[in-house]
């Protein structure tokens, strides 16, 4: 009897792990994982920090998903960004409707692990400490 209950418990745990892995992959592939991370970083009381990162290379996105209209695709990148003092953090950036072209640098308003806003900038405008890690 004890063996049967242990086997049943192991089966339940394995099924729960499989469902968890499937739901994580489904969230990632649907874009909901990236969206939930972005929303959480905006809602939680994380300070906004200006950071800089080289633009991600084309095709280096970690996931993509259809935009709200269904007519385009949003691309999710993970980049290593640095602040003016050289402190590094991995940030999630979402390029809406296009892939990154990989050219130049980005100035990023970061909250938590997300880039809330980003814009292209000249390398000359990037602090030396932020360029040091690249």
Notes on the protein architecture:
- This protein has 134 residues and is α+β, with helices and mostly antiparallel strands.
- 34% of the residues lie in helices and 33% in strands.
- It is built from 3 helices and 6 strands, in the order ααββββββα.
- The protein has a 3-stranded antiparallel sheet. Strands 2-3-4 form a 3-stranded antiparallel sheet.
- The termini are far apart.
Strand content: 25-35%
> What spatial order of strands do you see in the largest sheet?
1-5-6
Q: What class, by secondary structure content?
A: alpha+beta
Pick out the low-confidence regions. Answer: 6-30
- The number of helical elements comes to 3
What is the H-and-E element order? HHEEEEEEH
What's the average pLDDT? 79
Instruction: Determine the fraction of residues in helical runs and give it as a percent range.
Output: 25-40%
Radius of gyration: 19 Å
Question: So what's the overall shape?
Answer: globular
Main beta sheet: 3 strands, antiparallel
How many E strands?
Answer: 6
Beginning-to-end CA distance, first to last residue: 61 Å
